[in-house]
Amino acid sequence: MRGTHGMPSRESSLCLPLTPTLSPGGRGSWHPFALLGIVLAHGMSKTPVIEASDTDDELMARVAGGDAAAFDRLAARHMRRAVALAQRMTGNPSDADEIAQEAFLRVWQHAGRWDGGRASFTTWLYRIVMNLAIDRGRRPGWSPLEEAGDPPDESPDALTRIAERQTAERVNRALAALPDRQRAAVVLFHQEELSLRQAADVLSMGETAFASLLARARSTLKTALSAGDGP
Prior knowledge:
Layout: H1 10-15, H2 33-42, H3 56-64, H4 68-90, H5 93-109, H6 121-137, H7 158-177, H8 180-191, H9 196-202, H10 207-228
């Protein structure tokens, strides 16, 4: 069974073999979605064969050599953050899952291109996720927010919860309306809580340029939210 965009669904991914069959010096017939379905559904692989103390750099060196067990550990370590970042950029959980899967597929396919001397693995991964999320947002007919209705809230503080939800929706709409890189700057710095330098590295910018981008994003958000407070 396949999901949208021709990608394996979570259910079908769980049916794929976790243990790869690798030819010498190659990746063989194993497909990383066999792992990704398990990570997304359960949060970790059922067969932890790499020590948790191994660094991302060490794991990536093994992944570059076709080590599927190292990829298993790396994905289990970073999948949740990749999904969370993608959802903050797109506002759509379904899109976020697909973006995170595609990001790790690219990690597997292009591991040999990663240079730990130029960027940490997390910076490289965030960059991949950001680019995929921005590309997804540019597709015709894409919707940033899911419009599922909420069941009636009969609790005593229902009005407070409704007000909080409405405020969150306003912020999300204003965030979604930002230009791509401004939205990315806000997500990385304020929501992912990266440092100025880390966020700038993800966007391949200098710190001064990133600070200017972030200031413009904040100003745009403030204007949008203030307009919503009017009569």
